[in-house]
Amino acid sequence: MSLYNIQRDHARFKNIIKGKIKQDLKKYISNGDMIVKKGKDTVSIPMPQIDIPRFKFGSNEGGVGQGDGDVGDEVGSDGQPQEGDGQGEAGNQPGDHALEVDLTLQELAEILAEELELPKIEAKGKEILEKQKDRYTGIAHQGPNSLRNFRRSFREALKRQIATGTYDSENPVIVPIRKDMRYRSWKTTEEFDANAVIIYMMDVSGSMGDEQKEIVRTESFWIDTWLRSQYKGIETRYIIHDTIAKEVDEKTFYSTRESGGTLISSAYKLCQKMIETEYPPDQWNIYPFHFSDGDNWSGEDTKVCFDLLENYLFPRINMFCYGQVESRYGSGQFLKDLQEQFKDGNEKLALSKIENKEGIMKSIKEFLGKGK
Length: 372
Description:
Helix 3 packs across helix 5 and helix 7 (264-278) runs parallel beside helix 8. This protein folds into three domains: 3-48 and 98-116, no CATH class; 132-190, no CATH class; 194-368, von Willebrand factor, type A domain (Rossmann fold, 3-Layer(aba) Sandwich), CATH 3.40.50.410. Helix content is 35%, strand content 23%. By secondary structure, the protein is α/β, with parallel strands linked by helices. Strand 1 and strand 2 (42-48) form a beta hairpin. It is built from ten helices and eleven strands. It has helices at residues 3-23, 25-30, 105-116, 150-164, 210-230, 250-255, 264-278, 299-316, 333-341, 360-368, and strands spanning 36-38, 42-48, 98-104, 128-140, 183-193, 195-203, 233-241, 245-248, 284-292, 320-325, 349-354. A six-stranded mixed sheet has the order 8-7-6-9-10-11, sandwiched between helices. A three-stranded antiparallel sheet has the order 1-2-3.
């Protein structure tokens, strides 16, 4: 089989897999454990294994419709009527196995964007110099021996010998001289890209249980996947809060649970401090995401949150996304307050009510569907 055929078949297989993932995307999104991250840029996804049909060789005795038995008798694999009460011992053969398929996060992001019809993000802020890169762009007459291009050098020597009549086809000896030497030349190019930061905030008070944190963890994976496909330079920060906010690492973010009350403004103030000290808005695309069950200490603290959003965060960020995770212990009031405060709408604000894992897909669309 030629290399072209192998590549063509591999591409067809990839398209089949992508189609199957797209078809069952809601299942993969709602069940975060189905997708396992492998390395920095690759994930492993379980797929139903496809068995290839094979011929089974056996005896060629008898023909179609021949043999013992009456009409209506059940026929076994040996062609004979079967008797029994349907009871039997447990089998000892392996069952069906899932086939794990590796995809890049970029491919997964493309599937997500196609299914949810996500627009490409319009980055704000000036582009930042990411790195300088040397590219070999041509051939030079001078250079170090380490960059000598042997093929071009021998070609020049051959041309010279033919032109001067010294080339002997019966005894083709080609000896390059100094003026025949050719060297690879390079050009330094600068690569620019817009930077982005995702600031995750989550209420970890007693009313936010393991089920709510799992919903947040799953949704955050898909948010990360999409935003990382849009920006090369991206950072992620994590803030947890009850009545006090603090920055933590990713593992702590999803595993911490406190027994105290809730003061949402503490998280917004820490988010404000991060932006002021580390992320100049003219150089960074800023995405704060806040997840909570809707409880807050008081109406006065809710007013403080509104003030921080309107007078500080909205003018400096791309989008502020609030996701309210349904909880039997949470009042859900904060979402209602946000909807009332911003009833005329705000292009920098995205609100979502996440009732259960099946609601994650809809929530992602609500957060990322504006292309900001």
